[in-house]
Amino acid sequence: PTLAEHPLPKLLDEGLFVTINSDDPPMFDTTLTDEYLRISDSFGFKITTIKQLVINSIHASLLSSDTQLALECEFRTQFAELENEFGLSSAS
């Protein structure tokens, strides 16, 4: 199967809690950034979808609730700065 055949968009449309992972970066010669770029290119995801996937990964971690909330706040701030810098909106 190809990435384009993956049910990821359907899983998201159904409201499932999904995260993106890089599995074994050295073995597959990839990074988490590469994986986000691949799904963005393959499925045409907008910034809001990528942002939600990143936030999902924070909440799927084994970090304490306080640390998760702090990281979410930090990531949302970083996303807002990027959106502003590149003229993106939440609808983009």
Explain what the structure shows.
It is a single chain. It is built from five helices and no strands. It is mainly α and 92 residues long. The protein has one domain. The radius of gyration is 14 Å and the shape is globular.
What is the element layout, followed by pairings?
Elements (H helix, E strand, L loop, with lengths): L7 H6 L11 H4 L3 H12 L3 H14 L4 H21 L7
GO molecular function: deaminase activity; hydrolase activity, acting on carbon-nitrogen (but not peptide) bonds, in cyclic amidines; metal ion binding
InterPro entries: A_deaminase_dom, Ado/ade_deaminase, Metal_Hydrolase
Protein name: Adenosine deaminase domain-containing protein
Q: Key terms for this structure?
A:
92 residues, mainly alpha, 5 helices, 62% helix, globular, Adenosine deaminase domain-containing protein, Ado/ade_deaminase
Report the end-to-end length measured between terminal Cα atoms: 29 Å
- Look at the structure and give the mean pLDDT: 94
H/E order of the elements?
Answer: HHHHH
Rg on CA atoms, Å: 14 Å
Short overview:
By secondary structure, the chain is mainly alpha-helical. The protein has one domain.
